[in-house]
Design brief:
- Helix content is 41%, strand content 20%.
- By secondary structure, the protein is α/β, with parallel strands linked by helices.
- A hairpin with a 2-residue loop joins β10 and β11.
- α1 packs across α4, α4 runs antiparallel to α5 and α5 packs across α6.
- The radius of gyration is 19 Å and the shape is globular.
Length: 311
């Protein structure tokens, strides 16, 4: 994107935030429910960007992240100053890493890299396809002349953590030169980045916990669908039995949640393969891919299409 376009968009967001503050509201940045690392990194980055442009904001979430995300937050040193206890009545929200919210607080706008329907329709909308939301916010900071090593480091980690270490189909290969330059200049450990980016789950985790990793809820035409996603070591045995347990958990959960479909995505980033379990009332369909899955490409279109059918 052109820097002037981004600079103007940031100016729009800053003006809306300042208006909210002048009206007695507090500006809050939040990611999606059960936030992953890109959501959390993006929220921290946007808070920092707004601060450098004269806008005070807080980072709050309505739900807690999973254990893998909490581990990586602490490793990155961004765990402090984040609330997971929900929102106050006078909070006005800026969404990052998603553009559909089920919270009733007033939404100022969104910054997202998911271009899946429905279209964002807030006072401020910046939804562009990118490797990660953190990458978008870094570009915003660069356009405004306030980017630094911290912002670039967080953006690099967000890309690795949100694309299974650049193996996901949503990874933009145009980012490769920027990543290589940043990793070398900032002295980052590429092997460590790669291992973190795999976000591998453990067989020791309870199936009930694993079942809702990276949970996302979809609503089209009044019908609710859901998905969750785990990352496994495809070369390690024992996952077939554990996955069967997870599917049984999700069969029960989708009934309780009133979902007509739940898609479990099992990514195997080390070998670039994925298995998708489409769980419906009438059974379970397993689709095996010889690449890593992307929910925007492999899940959302199915949920949207079936929400409009009589299934």
């Amino acid at each position: 994107m052109e820097r002037e376009f981004l600079k103007n968009k940031v100016g729009e967001l800053v003006a809306l935030c300042k208006n909210a503050i002048e009206g007695g509201f507090s500006v809050v940045v939040t990611g999606h429910d059960m936030p992953d690392c890109d959501s959390i990194i993006s929220a921290v980055m946007l808070r920092e960007l707004l601060s450098r442009l004269g806008v005070a904001s807080a980072v709050k979430f309505g739900t807690y992240p999973d254990g893998v995300t909490l581990r990586d937050m602490k490793k990155l040193g961004i765990a402090d100053g984040i609330s997971f206890d929900g929102f106050d009545d006078n909070d006005m929200i800026v969404l990052v890493d998603h553009h559909v919210t089920f919270y009733e607080n007033k939404v100022i706008g969104c910054v997202d890299h998911h271009t899946t329907p429905p279209e964002a329709n807030f006072d401020f909308n910046l939804v562009v396809k990118a490797s990660s939301c953190g990458r978008v916010i870094y570009d915003m900071a660069v356009a405004c002349g306030v980017a630094d090593d911290f912002m670039e480091k967080m953006a690099i980690y967000s890309v690795y953590l949100d694309t299974q270490s650049c193996r996901s189909p949503k990874f933009d290969k145009n980012d490769l030169p920027w990543l290589a330059d940043g990793i070398a200049r900032l002295g980052l450990d590429e092997d460590e980045l790669t291992q973190m980016g795999f976000c591998l789950n453990s067989l020791d985790e309870d199936a009930e916990v694993l079942a809702t990793y990276a949970y996302k809820r979809y609503e089209f035409g009044g019908r609710v669908g859901a998905s969750s996603c785990i990352q496994i070591d495809g070369e390690q045995g024992g996952w077939t039995e554990k996955t069967d347990e997870i599917v049984e958990c999700l069969k029960r959960k989708m009934m309780l949640d009133g979902a007509f479909i739940w898609v479990l995505v099992v990514n195997k980033p080390k070998i670039s393969r994925s298995d998708l379990y489409f769980i419906r009332e009438n059974g379970v369909e397993v689709v095996c891919l010889d690449r890593l899955a992307s929910r925007s490409r492999d899940v959302v279109p199915v949920v949207m299409r079936e929400s409009q059918s009589n299934i």
